[in-house]
Amino acid sequence: MIDSGFRRGTDVLKALALGAKFVFVGRPFNYAAAVAGEAGVRRGISLLRDEVSRNMAMLGVISTAHIGRDFLLDA
Questions:
Q1: Degrees (nearest 5) of the Cα angle 70, 71, 75?
Q2: Residue 34 and residue 31: Cα distance in Å, rounded?
Q3: Which residues pair with 2 in a beta bridge?
Q4: N or C: fewer beta carbons within 10 Å in the chain?
Q5: Which residues contact 61 (CB under 8 A, 6 or more apart)?
Q6: Distance of CA 43 to the CA centre of its chain
Q7: Which residues fall within 8 angstroms of residue 22, CB to CB, at 6 or more apart?
Q8: From the centroid of its chain, how far is CA 51?
């Protein structure tokens, strides 16, 4: 499990590629709750889910189980 600083779907996929089995994404949902309550949190979840799904499609994978270090570039 990993936590801290995850904001986007690409962040989640990078963490999974590095070996995380679970990624905590909290702060964006706290902001969403402060601005729009439950509806904001639901919208935030929808946005993150869609982002992860879209980026997985661009990588050509259908399951997070298929994401590994080979999807990362060395900097």
A1: 90
A2: 5
A3: 23
A4: C
A5: 67, 71
A6: 14
A7: 1, 2
A8: 7
Q: For 2-37, how does the pLDDT look when each residue is reduced to its tens digit (9 = 90+)?
A: 998 899 999 999 999 999 999 999 899 999 999 999
The residue with tokens 């399951």 is 63
Q: Where are the domains of the chain?
A: 9-71
- The DSSP code for 19 is T
Residue 23, beta-bridge partner list: 2
pLDDT in tens, 43-75: 999 999 999 999 999 999 999 999 999 999 987
> What's the rounded mean pLDDT across residues 40-45?
96
Integer Cα distance of 59 and 67 in angstroms: 9
46 Rama class: left (phi>0) / alpha (psi -120 to 50) / beta: alpha
Q: Which residues make beta-bridge pairs with 30?
A: none
pTM: 0.88
